[in-house]
Amino acid sequence: MAIYEVDELSFEVPDGYVDRSMNVFVPPANMMKGTPHNILITREPRSEETVAQQAARLLKELASKMPGTKILGQRDRVIGALPGREARSHGTRNGVPIYQRQFFVGHYGTLLSLIVTSTRAQSAQCDALAERLLASLKLRRR
User: Fold this and answer.
1) pLDDT digits (tens, 9 = 90+) for 14-72
2) Residue 75 sits in a domain of what CATH number?
3) pLDDT digits (tens, 9 = 90+) for 94-113
C-alpha cells in the first residue's frame, strides 16, 4: 500500500469554522469487481463525551440515515497509541448488502472516523484491509 499523508496544504479558516472534511479512497475501475472496498476518513469536532459515547451516538445517527443498518458489535481499541472505539455493522445500500468496519479516535479536538466498507460477501477481505490500515496508521503530533 502507498503511504498517504493528509497534511498536504494549509490555509486560513474563518473563526468558528469546524473541520468536517472527508477523504475517500476507492479502488480503480479495473479492480471494482474483485475488490469492491472503499475507505472513508471523516472528521468531527470532539464533544464532551468520551470517545466511546461520541462514537455510539454517531453510529446511531448513521443507522438512522441508512435503514436496515445493524450494529454487530462495538469495543474499545487502541488506535495509533490513543484510546479509540471500533464497530462492525451490516446494512444495505442501493439493494446491495454491505459490511463496515469503523474506527474512532480523538485527536487534538477532532474525532477521526475511519470506515472501511465492502460488500457483505467480502467481509473477511474487508477485515484484513482494515487491520492493515490500522497497522500502518500514524497519528501526527501538532
Assistant:
1) 888 887 788 888 887 766 565 678 999 999 999 999 999 999 999 999 888 887 899 99
2) 3.40.1000.10
3) 888 999 999 999 999 999 99
pTM: 0.85
Q: Where are the beta strands (DSSP E) in 21-127?
A: 22-25, 38-45, 70-79, 82-93, 96-107, 110-119
Q: Could you tell me the three cell numbers for 91?
A: 446494512
User: Is 13 part of a structural domain of the chain?
Assistant: no
Question: Does residue 31 sit in helix, strand or coil?
Answer: helix
Decide the pairing of beta strands 38-45 and 70-79: unpaired
**Number of compact structural domains in the chain:** 1
Task: Identify residue 55 by its one-letter amino acid code.
Answer: A
Instruction: Give the N- to C-terminal CA distance of the chain in Å, as an integer.
Output: 25
